[in-house]
Structures are given as C-alpha cells and as structure tokens.
Amino acid sequence: MPSLFAILLTKVKRSQIITLLVASLVCLVIGALAFAVTQHVSIGIGLYWAITTATTVGYGDVTPHNTVGRVIAILVMVTTIPLFGAAFAFLAASLTATRLAKLLHMREGPPKGSFIAIYGMHDAVRKIAAEVAATGERVVVIAESNLESLPATVETIKGDPTLEVVLRRSEPERATRLLIAVEDEKDALLIAVMLRHLAPLVPLIAVANSSRIATALTDLGVETTVSVEDLLGHTLAKSIETPHAGDLLLEMVRSPEMVFREFGASPELIGRTLSQARSLEHGLLLGVVKQGQIHMGVSADPTIEAGDTLLVLRRRIDEHTHERI
Predict the structure, then answer these.
(1) How many angstroms separate the first and last alpha carbons of the chain?
(2) pLDDT tens-place string over residues 61-112
(3) C-alpha closest to that of 36 among 74, 62, 59
(4) Which of 35, 141, 199, 283 lies most in the core, judged by the most C-beta atoms within 10 Å?
(5) Range of the domain at 120
(6) Is the pTM of this model over 0.85?
(7) 174 in a domain, yes or no?
C-alpha cells in the first residue's frame, strides 16, 4: 500500500491544481451571475449564495425562488463542488508527497562530492543502481516515479528528467558519469540533447531498447550506448551455439570479486602487440580500443599505439595491491 500511495502521489502536477482552481472559479462566477439575474438580487448576494453553495455550507438564508434558479443551483452543485474538492485533494496530496519525499530520503539536489547520475526508471535501473552503489560509488537516480523501490544506498531526486529545470537541479556537470535509462525512446533522445548541452565534458552513457535508437543516441554525442535488444539477442544466440557462453558473460559482469577497468596505454605498452601486453598486465587484458573500435586479438594481433584504450578485467582486491602498467 505505501508503494501504491507513493506512485499515485507522483502524478500530482501543479498545473492540474491550477487548472482545477480556475475551472472552479469560472463555474462559481458564472453561477453567481446567473443566480443574480434570474432571482433579481445583487451580484454580491449572488456571489454569497454561490460560495455558500460551493463550500457546502448552505445557510439557507438565500435560496432560489423559481425553476430556473433551482436548475442553476443544481448546475453549481454538480460542477463547482467536485472541482473545488478535487483541487484541494490534489493540493493535500502534493503536500503529502513533499513530506513523503523527506521520509524516503529524496533530495532536492545532488549530494556533495562526486556521484554518478542516472536519469529515468528503466526496468534495469534498480539492478544497475544497486550494483554500482555496492562498489562504493555514490549514485543518484533522477526520476518521476517508483523511487521508493530503490535500495537505501541509492539517493534520489524526484522529478521528470525530460524537463530542463529538473536536469539543472541535478547538476549534471558535477557528476563523474551520466546514464540515461528511460523506457520511452523519444524521452531518451530529448534528455541526451539537454545533458550534452548542460554537461558537455561529462561521459554520457545511454540504455536503448533498439539498435536504431542506439545509433541515434551515438549521433547526438552519447559516448556509449547499450542496446538491450542487441545485448539480449546476441547473448542468447551465443548461448544456443555454446551453452556455457551466456554463463561466462554473466559471471564476468555479476561477480562482486571482479571489476572492469579501462585506461590509456602507458609508454611501456606502446609498440607491443596485444598478446605481449597480456603477459605484462595484472589481470585479464580483454582488448584494446582503437578509434572507437574494440579489438580482442582473435583474428589479428593489433599493436598498441599512443591514444589507445585498454580494457581489463581484474580482481577487485588487486586494485589496491598492483600498480597499473
């Protein structure tokens, strides 16, 4: 029940409250004027009657005296009373949502120091945020709903990530990395454009539901895009071809003892082949990135050059016991 309540509260919009209040006032004024004209009373008395009727006070000192007046009274009651009731209900819900956000440790802005910002609540966000937070990184998720489902180690900012004001409040320029993880493809493109403008120097990663959107995000300046469609499809295909391939990939990414790292090629490795570098690296040297393309040394043994990036799989404990080559 608390989760359902929190989800409902996230639907409350300030614009909805304003719209309901304006509609209520319009119906109130029209009803008051109509009552004053048909019952031959002053506009002041008409407003007094309309307000007492809309607020369900109904003193009874001013009442309609003919059929037209009764029809007006009915219309005021079936329009103004529900509209005012809905407006105040939304207002109360909004205040409750603010209080609930404090109880759930939702932030108005990002934490001090470095952090990783995740925009959206894709199905994979809960797992992603939990695993990244488990490594000791500070993680902030910016989303409009379902924030209460995240683990306590993950900090949150409640808001629609497609709105620039929400993105600015998250201060993306201070983050070490940015991840876009929304279900709607159009939202992913919109967020990517705004984040690239607000934080042009921060590495930007995006989760895409299809290879088509992944390509579009890359064209917008997203450094790394992960297509869920391609990742799942290729993994399952390899598992069918080689039954333990999927288990191997899963073990590499889910093991808490292992960590992936990437870094620029050091002077000691420049000029060596990938196979030679593998014998010098403390860990499993998976491949080398050349001009955005990954080479694993299967079909050819590439030579490491200045500007290349090395991808390494290491034991987490070795991060503090070995110097990087």
Answers:
(1) 54
(2) 888 989 998 999 899 888 888 888 887 787 777 666 655 554 544 555 566 7
(3) 62
(4) 141
(5) 106-231
(6) no
(7) yes
